[in-house]
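The instructor's notes for this session suggest beginning with a concrete chain rather than abstract definitions. Hand out the sequence below and ask the class to guess, before any prediction is shown, which regions might be ordered.
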Amino acid sequence: MTKMTQKTIRTVIIVITFFAIAIAGIISKQDFFRILPLFISLFVVYFQADANRYAYLVGAFNALLYGVVYFSLGLYALAANAVLFSTPIQIMIFVRWQKRAYERSTIMRKMSIKTRLIYLAIFVAAWIAVFIALTYAGSQYEILDNTASLLSALVLILTLFAYVEYPLVWVINSIVNIILNIQVTMVEPGHVTYLIYSIYNLYCSSTTFVNVNRLYKKQQKGIENTLE
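After discussion, reveal the predicted structure:
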């Protein structure tokens, strides 16, 4: 598939998703403010799929809107993650990627086995701690809310350091979010707009996985040519 064909398909998908969310929002009489972050996210992840560092500037602002929406739904872990973590770290991602700029992206690198084990241990410890906190807070979705919020945080941390593995974690997180949004939609049908977006997000994260690995190989090839 050529790059032009891929972008054409992505454009068609984003248009279809935009209207699907809009129609679902109108039918369910959902407040516009609640679905506004979704419309912005459509374009944020569209450019993130190309590992475009400028997407994170817009994403930082959009994370604040998500925080308000998640809090209103009782998804406290996701709300805290969006406001206290996602917003500042996305700004940090842009700054760091700007310093190590490569075209519109940045220089990618791979994690060592030791680094992967350290991140895994921290994730497990954090998951247990947040699960206990959410249980006491009375969250209805303590398992999926916890997992989705921590995976989102992990994706951003790996992105900050431009680890080529971050899209794979994003794909896993997208699947968890689809399951979570299905559960929330069963309780509150109007949440179907978020379910639609989460499916689109899975497509974009999968595209990012392909594009980032292709970019990494291109960069490594350039390094090898330089050494020769």
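Then share the key points. The mean pLDDT is 89. The CA atoms of residues 120 and 154 lie 10 Å apart.
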